[in-house]
Amino acid sequence: MSLGSILRSWGAPLATTVLLLGFALGCGSSGDDGDDGPGLGAPTPIPITAGQVTFVNRCAVSLTLNSTGPALGTLNANGGWVSVAVSAFNQGSQNVVMPYPNTSAEQCPVAYCDGWTALGCAPGAMQREGYMWEGANGTFAAYCNPSLSGRGICAQQQNCCGPGMVQDGTFGTTWEFTPNGANSLDYPDLSTNYGSGPTSPPHLCPYPLNPNDCVSAAANIFFNVPIKWSTNEPCSFTSARTQVMGLECLTASCADAYQHPTDDKQCACSHSASRGYLVEFCPAGSSMPAPPR
Length: 293
Known about the structure:
Blueprint: H1 4-8, E1 52-57, E2 62-67, E3 74-75, E4 80-85, E5 95-102, H2 138-143, H3 154-157, E6 174-178, E7 185-191, E8 227-237, E9 242-249, E10 267-270, E11 277-281
Parallel strand pairs: 1-11
Antiparallel strand pairs: 1-4, 2-3, 2-5, 5-6, 6-7, 7-10, 8-9, 8-10, 8-11
């Protein structure tokens, strides 16, 4: 299981490869004018293509995809998409993809994230807990950088949300993908770091009972955008070997995601030229909160 070391080190920024494209990737409104309402009509179906990973944004705001593998760019709101060859991802090692909403200063005023006071203090001073990403905090979690928010510095630095938000790979919904890994299998996974309950986060390191099952005090909850991935051939989920055609995470507490480093949520898929993947942000039945405006 590959993500234990990732979760233990979430306090440090990930090395990222992000390319912001100046043109539209697929359909939908432009990346600068996403609104808080649903798209009109039924969503355009996007097929699963052999040998490809296709990312589609069904959210009402545009998303920039932060990737530790290939550059993925910006997806327009309400249907923007991009397809990338499986072979373009780091083979045999983990690729982490995180979506970040692109909002204007009017949609997310620079001082807004200073109100996320449930975070308590600076990263590393107090461990994040699930409730900080839920209920009244849901809009903060969707649009704000938690490593900067709630400390009275957002209005001054203008980098907590809106066009200046720092998209540093230390927070956000994670889709983790190891193609052609151990035993010639693909490993697509979801991870939120939520713990066992809204006030019961993962163990803090050091944790002598299981050094591989702990996180740093600066670890965030990894959820801001609902996600669903699917594939065209069956995969095996967890040690029970349940057959699945994909998984979803519509809330930070979702059952399909790793909630701590040694959680039994591994998904293993045969690696073949005929297999493809579809990763949907804001899939049917889900949405992001409206921008705070």
